[in-house]
Amino acid sequence: MIPRTVLPCLLALAALVTALALTVTEGGALPRHGWYLLDVALFALAVLLLRRVPGRQAVPLVLAGSVAVAAVGLLAPPRTSDDAYRYVWDGRVQAAGISPYAHTPDDPPLTRLRDPGLFPTGDGCSGWDERRTAAGDCTRINRPAVHTVYPPVAQAWFLALHPFGGGVRGVQAAGALLAVATTGLLLGTGRARWRAALWGWFPGVTVWAVNDAHVDTLGALLTVAGLGCAARGRAVCGGLLLGGAVATKLLPALALPGALSGLLARRPTRGDVLLLGSALGVFALSYLPYVAASGTSVLGYLPGYLREEGYEQGHIDRFGLLRLVLPDRLAPWAAGLVLAVVVVRVLRRGDRERPWEGALLVTGTALLLVAPGYPWYGLLVVALVTLDGRWEWLAVPAAGQALYLTGGQGAQQLSYGTALCVVLLVPLLRQRFGGRAVVAEGSRGGGRPEATRV
Hints:
The chain is mostly helical. Helices cover 59% and strands 2% of the residues. It has helices at 6-25, 33-50, 55-71, 83-95, 152-161, 168-189, 197-200, 203-211, 216-231, 235-246, 256-259, 270-294, 302-308, 331-349, 355-370, 379-388, 395-406, 409-432, 434-444, and strands spanning 131-132, 138-139, 311-312, 315-316. It has a two-stranded antiparallel ribbon with strand order 1-2. Helix 1 runs parallel beside helix 3 and helix 10 (235-246) packs parallel to helix 12 (270-294). It is globular.
């Protein structure tokens, strides 16, 4: 017989999985915006009901829900991003013994590697994920005239996936495995185990991690593992994993200050040196084979990507909130200054036993400052929220999704401005009702109360 507290949560979870399945299969070329709102509402309801489930029953429920949430992302080809096709291509190029940094997808020497999955023929090249190469051929690979932008550990991942079908479906399946593995890791890392559902049941996992198969999921997994090692005093292991995360998708570098929390308030320890040294060592060593093969081409399209996305002066498409109060030319400098202040605060006052606390503060602040239009950057934030418990930071990836769906400077400022308000106001409410929060966490979490983590 299903316990009384479990049944409502199961029903809400089933509704969430159903809505997510419809999100990735209905609505023509791209999902309708309304599905995302329904997904978020059902996610919040399911997590709230999960908190009433006893700890021993919550663990299998969280894991089973994570499997279901990930699985529905496999029901359709990528719906909102075509990055997975580049992953497949980079893996195929490496399997042929060629550096992915040496050629662009439309270079003639790589013509022999093409297939209809990546270079469709006879369909008019009219799909949302299709475009023409310089020679007029149709392809699903984005930016076919530029070199790859992905760092070496990501490239190693693409190569490792190539033998398993060499297609986008294999990349999606790998994304599902990474998503569920991250849930399992979070279940073993946190005290309040129900919080693993903040990652495992999060709608963005279905869309960004599995259906679109973004490699950010691998970066999030390595970051969670690295911070877990750092919290247990395993400096070398933590550094190796965090260095691998940075060499997967540069964004996890923002988690490093959290791993070094309190460094400026004490004498550096042997562990600090080992962690930072091993992280830098892994990052540098991962590039060596590609540097030997391609030289400075290993930078790929990164400089062009930064220009295209507006991260430099003269082409300002980011920093939307700062641009409300500052001239465009000052926005990047102001963002750098604010981020530096936050990093220093973490390095001076951060908790070494909770490195994810500082990692979340730095990473979330950086995304609020930059205001990117790619919501999957927020997967790292979701993982850190799950570790730390400050759920208000989920507003940041939600803002990225809203901007991605609507576009425009006004939408950028509205979405990230709303996220900033949530991040600032919820802690004030948490302090006001902190006494009740302690009781609630102590009675439901199965561990010691954490007044600021409900």
